[in-house]
Amino acid sequence: MKKQMKIMVVITIGCIVMALTDGWWQPGYAVKSAIKILFFLGLPYVFLRKELTSKLFGFRKETLPKLILLGMGIYGFILAAYFILGPYFDFSSVVSGLESQLGVNAGNFIFVALYISLANSLLEEYFFRGIAFIELKQMTSRRFAYMFSAWMFALYHVAMLIGLFDWYLIVLMLVALVVGGYIFNYINEKESSILASWAVHLFANLAINTVGMILFGII
After folding, report:
1. Using CA atoms, how far apart are residues 215 and 74, in angstroms rounded to an integer?
2. CA 194, CA 105: separation in Å to the nearest integer?
3. What pLDDT is attached to residue 78?
4. Which of 112, 159, 171, 218 is in Cβ range 3.0-4.6 Å of 23 for a Cys bridge?
5. What is the pLDDT of residues 21-66, one digit of tens each?
6. How far apart are the first and last CA of the chain?
7. Domain residues for 70?
8. How many domains does the chain have?
9. Mean of pLDDT over the chain
């Protein structure tokens, strides 16, 4: 099997497994996280050890202020979108869905939010940007790597959104996730490091988790 096909198969399998886990099985968040680690980190290590040649964790300190500013901008944009659009949508199903599907509630949300912002975001950057973009771009066209990585990143999130939001919000979020995937890929292409896009991804997750704390009445 060609190297690029191996990468695409591993990424696709990981996304399908997580889609089934989120959309069908719906275990607690701890079990879901363990499965994600197994398929987003373990599966690539087992099947792609020879293909993974890039140094994904290099980082230029001089770019940090720029990335922090970008991250803060994204944080502010997401919160502004929530406060502007929030009155027009009913988000009560989000809270009930998180409690029933994942066992996430006001009591454990802070711990889940910290894991999502710090660890889960880095895991996703390694899988979708490090492997599905940086590595794949060496073996396919730049345009295809951009498209494949961004769309797989977006579609992977759709399964966890079903049941939490109305269909039109899911479509809107899908578009936003594709755009976000392209932005993360561009940052990685400029810096040749997943730590760069992770810094921005972290702020995006912090914004989403801030909205979650508002919905759960924590703040």
Report:
1. 20
2. 31
3. 92
4. 159
5. 987 888 888 899 999 999 999 999 999 987 777 778 877 788 888 8
6. 52
7. 3-215
8. 1
9. 89
